[in-house]
Design a protein that fits this description.
By secondary structure, the protein is α/β, with parallel strands linked by helices. It has one domain: Lipoprotein like domain (Double Stranded RNA Binding Domain). The protein is built from three helices and six strands; from the N terminus they run αββαββββα. Strands 1, 2, 3, 4, 5 and 6 form a six-stranded mixed β-sheet that branches.
Amino acid sequence: MGRLFLFLALVSLAAEWGCGYKFQGRGTPLDPEIQSVAIPIFGNRTSQTGIESEVTRALVDKFTSTRRLSVRSQNTADSVLLGTVKSFLALPIAVTTGQQVTTGYRVTVTLDVIFQRKADGKVLWKETISEWRNYPVVADLAKAENFKREAISQISTVLAERIQEMILGSF
């Protein structure tokens, strides 16, 4: 019986060390009294209209889907997630030779984000965070705008995931 126990213990350790998995998550030192979060619409210091709504929507969707913190109004929440779209930058990334025509853009969005406890206003987490996506340039202006909006939507989703992971921790 002792050999079997020793064998199983060694196999468990080898599996843990060898494959990179851990038996417990990183977790977070989040105050256990914080059960809810308010996510008011982010500010927008850019000329890109509507980007603050897209970022806020992605955050609300992410926190709602994980259910670790319920999303509530500012009047009833234990914490608040505040933010500002600090910059929106679209730069050409692909240019055809000879004609110098842009065939693609890289969109980069940067946010300033603060997560704070409402009871005393203590800042629990603060970060400047960025993400980018590429999109093609097309002659049809409506399609070009749709490609840009899709890139913004993808960026917002990734930023929401990263923010949620940084605040709550992940497995």
